[in-house]
């Protein structure tokens, strides 16, 4: 069975481009996936350094290192870089690497467009970082770029707007590629309702991206025309309304948080069954839950705006709609736990990160439900409670799931095993210091400490010190990951085709490391739910 090699079928060029050209002109989904993942990791380090600057300043009350203007630039760029430079590209990179392998496609549908989706990212991020050195500095309006502040800032804001335009184009192209690949390029026998949950999650996420990135582009373009071309969308003096900006931004912004959460759900839904050695519990309910989260995510945006003077009926609507999302999310958490129930579990690093994800994401979900209560949000809005909440869903959610995925698929990608002991250390270290960093922020918020502030009242000192120590230790721990990856790439043990006993999806049916070209022509499959492969023959009708 030559499902991988396939060079006999003259259609696929056997040669593998070398050197710089391989990366610059990359059209191979695995190469592009690697580019995305490395890029995202670099941005994670850059965003992380900015976070550590923030935490260094907040180690003590008073101003130590940064003037307030610069401090605000640091929080803004930290947020923008983590969201658009680290988390989103990392998920796109994984989708690029794994989707074709999981559904039996020879590559992504639009290989050349794929090249562009990636190569737009470095210039966009360069613009964003360059904004630190232009007159007036980087954007300092928070990652939400609220008007009227964003209308007034210096030219750093223009660079930010341009960067967001480019990032938006990149994400939309990447998303179109994912949708078309999944709809059109599944190998025969890979039915939609048998697809791996990671494919479902990527598909729904891609629809969200296509729907809302243009909305963000619209919001920042209105800011741009207000700044330079005499419009007054958000300027009250000219008849505009700053609240309009918030509506448009959050119509993008809330689905955006699911863009960073749904792929995580998909990853965990692959990892948990593998290490519990049981099929995913409630597969179809997982598909419907993910879809309904996708739909509901468009109907809750004004829960970010409870204090803007909405009518009580609107507050009630957005409050109940938000709470409704807890239902499908609860279904998912229930299914993951039911999958583990009576499974014969083992706790390799990917499984640890997946379980850590479930635990901590649930904590973030619960603080989210408390924030959805309008009367509570009036108190907690703009406080450190919110910072605690969204880091539980973003760091322990998105980031932990990404670590889980990288450890899980590392053998398939590279042909080598990572060092298990270092992986375990990375997990426990991250788990501990993550909580030391972010749990005290709940208390700070409840006690009234506002976010995006370089200085604070004396009574907040202790918890801030704890959070700062935690953050530096957490940051240090990520070097364990880097060392593990760099070491294992060269010196890791050779990985077998099937490093995980319980893994039974399509990507584990081909050689390790995954050959440069695979599934051309596509195999004829017989599948079960969640992408489980029952049988595979060569030469299905693509
Ligand atoms: C892992 C270590 C991290 C640490 C120590 C950290 C720390 C911080 C701190 C101290 C703030 C400023 C809070 C404020 O003053 O309002 C902040 C804001 C933020 N962080 Fe993180 N963060 C980390 C990772 C991440 C990740 C992975 C994301 C992923 C998306 C993220 C997203 C954000 C966002 C969106 C903001 C809001 C920025 C704004 O106020 O405009 N952070 N973070
Ligand atoms: Cu929201």
TrEMBL record:
It comes from the Bacteria. It is found in: Cell membrane; Membrane. Residues 23-526 form the Cytochrome oxidase subunit I profile domain. Signal peptide: none annotated. SUPFAM superfamilies: Cytochrome c oxidase subunit I-like. InterPro entries: Cyt_c_oxase-like_su1_dom, Cyt_c_oxase-like_su1_sf, Cyt_C_Oxase_1, Cyt_c_Oxase_su1_BS, Cyt_c_oxase_su1_dom, Cyt_c_oxidase_su1_bac. Its EC number is 7.1.1.9. Pathway: Energy metabolism; oxidative phosphorylation. It holds the Pfam family COX1. One of its GO terms (molecular function) is cytochrome-c oxidase activity. Keywords: Cell membrane, Copper, Electron transport, Heme, Iron, Membrane, Metal-binding, Oxidoreductase, Respiratory chain, Translocase, Transmembrane, Transmembrane helix, Transport. CDD domains: Cyt_c_Oxidase_I (cd01663). The chain crosses the membrane at residues 35-57, 77-97, 118-141, 161-185, 197-224, 244-268, 280-302, 314-338, 350-376, 388-410, 431-449, 469-489. Belongs to the heme-copper respiratory oxidase family. This is Cytochrome c oxidase subunit 1. It comes from Aquitalea magnusonii.
């Amino acid at each position: 069975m030559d499902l991988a090699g396939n060079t006999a079928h003259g259609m696929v060029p056997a040669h593998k481009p070398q050197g710089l050209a391989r990366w610059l002109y990359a059209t191979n989904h695995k190469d592009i996936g690697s580019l995305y993942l490395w890029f995202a990791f670099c941005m994670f380090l850059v965003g992380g350094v900015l976070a550590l600057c923030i935490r260094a300043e907040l180690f003590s009350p008073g101003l130590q290192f940064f003037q307030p203007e610069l401090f605000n630039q640091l929080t803004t760029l930290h947020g923008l870089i983590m969201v658009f430079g680290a988390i989103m590209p990392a998920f796109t990179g994984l989708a690029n690497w794994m989707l074709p392998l999981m559904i039996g496609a020879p590559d992504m549908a639009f290989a050349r467009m794929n090249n562009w989706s990636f190569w737009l990212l470095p210039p966009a991020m360069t613009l964003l970082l360059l904004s630190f050195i232009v007159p007036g500095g980087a954007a300092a309006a928070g990652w939400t770029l609220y008007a009227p502040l964003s209308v007034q800032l210096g030219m750093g804001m223009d660079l930010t707007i341009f960067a967001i335009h480019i990032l938006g184009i990149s994400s939309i192209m990447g998303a179109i590629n994912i949708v078309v690949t999944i709809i059109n390029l599944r190998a025969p026998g890979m039915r939609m309702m048998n697809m791996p949950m990671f494919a479902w999650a990527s598909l729904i996420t891609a629809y969200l991206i296509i729907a809302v990135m243009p909305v963000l582009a619209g919001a920042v373009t209105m800011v741009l025309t207000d700044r330079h071309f005499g419009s007054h969308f958000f300027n009250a003096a000219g008849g505009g309304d700053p609240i309009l900006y918030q509506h448009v931004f959050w119509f993008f912004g809330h689905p955006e948080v699911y863009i960073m959460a749904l792929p995580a759900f998909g990853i965990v839904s692959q990892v948990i069954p593998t290490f519990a050695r049981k099929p995913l519990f409630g597969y179809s309910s997982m598909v419907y839950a993910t879809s309904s989260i996708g739909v509901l995510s468009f109907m809750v945006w004004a829960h970010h705006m409870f204090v803007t003077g909405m009518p009580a009926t609107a507050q009630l609507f957005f409050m109940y709609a938000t709470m409704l999302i807890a239902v499908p999310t609860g279904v998912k958490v229930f299914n993951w736990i039911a999958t583990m129930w009576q499974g014969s579990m083992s706790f390799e690093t990917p499984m640890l990160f997946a379980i850590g994800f479930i635990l901590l994401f649930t904590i973030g979900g619960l603080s989210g439900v408390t924030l959805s209560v309008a009367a509570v949000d009036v108190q907690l809005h703009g406080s450190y409670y919110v910072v605690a909440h969204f880091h539980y869903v973003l760091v322990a959610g998105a980031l932990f799931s990404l670590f889980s995925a990288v450890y899980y698929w590392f053998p398939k990608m590279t042909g080598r095993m990572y060092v298990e002991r270092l992986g375990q250390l990375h997990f426990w270290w991250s788990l501990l210091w993550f909580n030391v960093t972010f749990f005290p922020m709940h208390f700070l918020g409840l006690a009234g400490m506002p976010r995006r502030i370089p200085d604070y009242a004396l009574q907040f000192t202790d918890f801030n010190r704890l959070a700062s120590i935690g953050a530096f230790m957490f940051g240090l721990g990520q070097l364990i990951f880097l060392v593990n990856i760099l070491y294992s790439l060269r010196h890791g043990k050779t990985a077998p085709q099937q490093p995980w006993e319980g893994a039974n999806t399509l990507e584990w049916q081909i050689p390790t490391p995954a050959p440069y070209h695979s599934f051309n022509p596509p195999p004829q499959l017989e599948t079960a739910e969640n992408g489980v492969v029952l049988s595979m023959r060569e030469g299905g009708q693509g």
